[in-house]
Amino acid sequence: VSFGAKHPDLWGNVMSVSGEAYPGFDHAPDVLANVFHGDQGAYDAVKPSTILAKNHYPDTWAFFSYGTDDHYFGPSLQELAQQAAAAGMTVKVDPLENAGHLMPAVRGGLGAGLEWLYPRTGLS
Q: How confident is the model at residue 100 (pLDDT cuts 50, 70, 90)?
């Protein structure tokens, strides 16, 4: 989603399959300290939610999937999907029942996302 938000001219389709809301989501304090040297503004500036809020994406499709049992990454991914829709992306959200964060969610989400994007990419 970060690449699609930053470079819609290159990435007209994006998928977040059991993904993070932003880079370093699960280690945010460490990323803030070690990568951004404590500069919260600089860290926030590279987050997809910040970039999405400043732009409009009428020609971008975005697929989001997460396991319904993933109570850590799932809620933030739902929020990111809402932000992408508010920024004008065509969005599909696919919650995968009884899946957590790892392989069942990845397998199910990847297949569903590719199937949804096939017609758009000319592969169907």
A: very high
